[in-house]
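To the wet lab folks,

You asked to see what we're planning to order before we commit. Fair enough. Below is the target structure as tokens, and below that is the sequence we designed to fit it. If anything looks off to you, flag it before the synthesis order goes out.
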């Protein structure tokens, strides 16, 4: 394999975007969870909801900061490593990313300070409102980012003049053919990821006999969301797959390791795709089921990899295996959600240690599924950077392989340190748990901020109580 500048730039962008995406996908769902807790607290006055909101806000702050820091690098990489992409597609993607800053990031930045530091300093109504607006801001941010990415997958609403894309219809650009499916799929994945983390933390505390009331709330809310969203994600994923089969058939062929489009496709459970000989080794499959899934006809036909020139095919193995990781985790989520809902209904959930123990270890599952799905989406688009308009090899900047390799090594080192410290600190927060004083929703702003000694006294009283 030739490790030229373009290949190294692809590795660098894949590394940085994979690191970055796990934080926004978590904070999107976590912001909504915190806002829901505060709204419920405002309506009921239950202290434990306020403590939970404050606890998860600390974790949100760390995750949000890591997401911002890791995301800034991506914008620079467009200019340093992919300048030709900026020239060809910048007229479309530039404004979309600009809209994200204007409508989402400014909204989040305006109210994030109140959400993080307004405890006991602003009125409860203002604090709850700030949390709701931050949650809305994270959702709007996802809207614009996915609009830009979806346009790169299924370009629409533009015209190409002298090799450069120019906007013609912004509505068609934003709501391009894959956007509704991609947005709903990713948005649901973010909520699933957060719900599983919340449920896992609740299970961890309950197994240890700590924060029992808070644990039960986290389990109810987390498992309730997983039980609803995991089966829904299966339906959304099926619709997204059908849309991909229509607009990016070679990606679907790689996902299924389907070579011969003249025959109905088997559902390949496991295989080792052999790209040199255009077949699958060690294949374990169920006849005709892939045709049933993709065409809704057991004898239906869809294009295979042989229907495309080798230079127009994506790397098959990464797409094939990542897709199975994503689907496999999705099936486990469905099972976990439905079993948890059944135990909850029967009143057995909080004592079912056989269920709570694996659940307490399941917090990484959503992140792994998101990364696998992202790799399917981005690797499956190859060799195109903007599908049908700009190939990846034609988008790179004229920089040396040594320069890209140097920055890649630096990013790996720095990101590893940042990630390790962030996870360490988040784990410290989880170890400490949802302690601390809360305020009644009927109380106004304290006459002055609480001192450190008063905060410590409140925490001591809370622990005894």
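Sequence we intend to order:
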């Amino acid at each position: 394999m030739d490790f030229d500048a373009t290949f190294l730039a692809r590795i660098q962008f894949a590394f940085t975007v994979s690191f970055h995406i796990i934080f926004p996908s978590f904070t999107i769902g976590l912001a909504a969870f915190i806002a829901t807790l505060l709204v419920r607290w405002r309506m009921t006055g239950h202290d434990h909801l306020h403590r939970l909101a404050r606890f998860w806000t600390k974790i949100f702050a760390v995750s949000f900061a890591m997401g911002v820091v890791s995301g800034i690098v991506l914008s620079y990489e467009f200019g340093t490593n992919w300048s030709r992409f900026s020239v060809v597609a910048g007229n479309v993607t530039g404004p979309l990313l600009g809209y994200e800053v204007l409508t989402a990031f400014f909204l989040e930045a305006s109210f994030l300070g109140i959400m993080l530091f307004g405890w006991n300093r602003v009125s409860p109504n203002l604090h709850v409102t700030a949390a709701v607006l931050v949650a809305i801001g994270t959702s709007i941010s996802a809207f614009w980012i996915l609009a830009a990415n979806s346009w790169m997958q299924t370009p629409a609403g533009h015209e190409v003049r002298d090799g450069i894309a120019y906007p013609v219809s912004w509505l068609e650009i934003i709501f391009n053919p894959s956007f509704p499916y991609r947005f709903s799929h990713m948005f649901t994945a973010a909520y699933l990821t957060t719900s599983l983390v919340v449920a896992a933390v609740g299970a961890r505390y309950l197994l240890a006999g700590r924060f029992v009331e808070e644990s039960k709330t986290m389990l109810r809310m987390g498992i309730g969301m997983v039980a609803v969203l995991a089966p829904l994600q299966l339906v959304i994923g099926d619709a997204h797959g059908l849309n991909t089969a229509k607009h990016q058939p070679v990606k679907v062929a790689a996902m299924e390791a389907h070579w011969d489009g003249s025959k109905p496709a088997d559902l390949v459970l496991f295989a080792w795709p052999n790209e040199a000989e255009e077949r699958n080794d060690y294949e374990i499959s169920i006849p005709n089921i892939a045709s049933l899934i993709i065409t809704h006809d057991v004898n239906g036909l869809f294009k295979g990899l042989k229907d495309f020139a080798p230079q127009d095919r994506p790397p098959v193995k990464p797409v094939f295996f990542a897709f199975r990781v994503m689907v496999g985790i999705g099936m486990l989520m469905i099972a976990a959600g439905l079993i948890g809902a059944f135990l909850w209904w029967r009143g057995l959930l909080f004592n079912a240690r056989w269920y709570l123990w694996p659940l307490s270890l399941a917090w990484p599952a959503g992140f792994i599924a998101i990364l696998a799905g992202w790799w399917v989406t981005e690797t499956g688009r190859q060799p195109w950077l903007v599908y049908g308009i700009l190939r990846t090899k034609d988008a790179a900047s004229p920089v040396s392989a040594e320069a890209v390799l140097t920055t890649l090594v630096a990013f790996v080192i720095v990101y590893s340190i940042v990630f390790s410290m962030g996870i360490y600190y988040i784990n410290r927060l989880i170890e400490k748990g949802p302690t601390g004083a809360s305020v009644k929703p009927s109380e106004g702003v304290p006459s002055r901020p609480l001192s450190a000694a008063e905060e410590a006294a409140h925490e001591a009283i809370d622990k005894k109580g």
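Structural context that might help your review: Confidence is low (pLDDT under 50) at residues 442-454. Strands lie at 158-161, 164-167, 267-274, 279-286, 384-386, 390-391.

Thanks,
Computational group
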